[in-house]
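Please, structure for the following, as tokens.
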Amino acid sequence: MKVGKLSQTAWNRAVMKQLYKKQEQNLLKISAAESCSAYAVDDEQVLIKSAASTSGDTKKLGNYSLAAAINQLASRGAKPIDVQIFILISERIGEQKVAGMVQEMEEMCTMMNIAISNVQVEVNPAVTQAIVRVETMGFAEKRILRNIENIKPEQDIVMCGFVGLEGTLRILDEQEKELKGRFVPAFLRQTKELESQMLKLWLLENVEKEVKEENIILSAVQHVGSGGLFATLWDTAEVAGLGLQIDMQKIQIRQETVEICEYYHLNPYKMTSTGSLLFFTDQGEKLIEILEKNGARAVRLGSTTAENARVITSGSEIRYLDRPTSDELMLWRKQKLEEGKNYGYKTEIKK
């Protein structure tokens, strides 16, 4: 199969058709676009669970799994209370690198005032690079639990964050030595500072309060993960049974992402984008005001439609959104591994 997240069609064939027993306790419908599960605690509260995994070769690898899992959880209205970490490594990776990865994640969790409750590390001969999986859970009010199926036609689609930013940062983490030969130090330093844009926990908490005060109808919030913006738009529309009308020129992208993606010939719109969120609402302009008041860059990308067509416009040009393809970061990593390059910072050989 192709690298990256399974397509909606392949997922339905290989996964959904094999699941015969219905999980009646889960309040969120299982789908390729749903990253969380939710269970009623009582009449007012639900327990929400989320998980995310990343693979690569740097000590900050776990931070991307952590940010994705936390953002997914917060997008469903929950505040994390627990984090569990599972790390798979190859035999060539030593204790020093594992310690560095755990230290990075501990610092990130401390910043959020969350204690890590479990860390498991396994050396597996089938693994060529490190794989970090983060599982998290938290409580949310039952009345604000948002489901993709709640999205309706003619709702505004508001984007917060920048496409391809996660992929940009991960490439810089692993290829900094090479990129120093192409870009000036100030450019790379400025790119690294964008790491602060990854985590959206506090933003979503503040937005949640103001949305409630303003009586804004917020049907769903989708975290933009593997496959990038285009894949998230397609998968969400597919599950919701709706079409899309998107203005390509409104999509937010940093110049740093443009430059690094051009250097490696990558499409940022198809690259993993933790830190980006899509809001589906009846009151897009009001929501943008709230997001910007809380320090976020936000824009109305377009709207949902009753028709099934997923249309993207760019000035006078009109085209249709294609079915999701492999994540560009995955394709980049596959190429690097096939070239046999030992990219990323040096690792110990543990015998």
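Residues 342-351 have pLDDT under 50 and may be disordered. The first strand starts at residue 36 and ends at 40.
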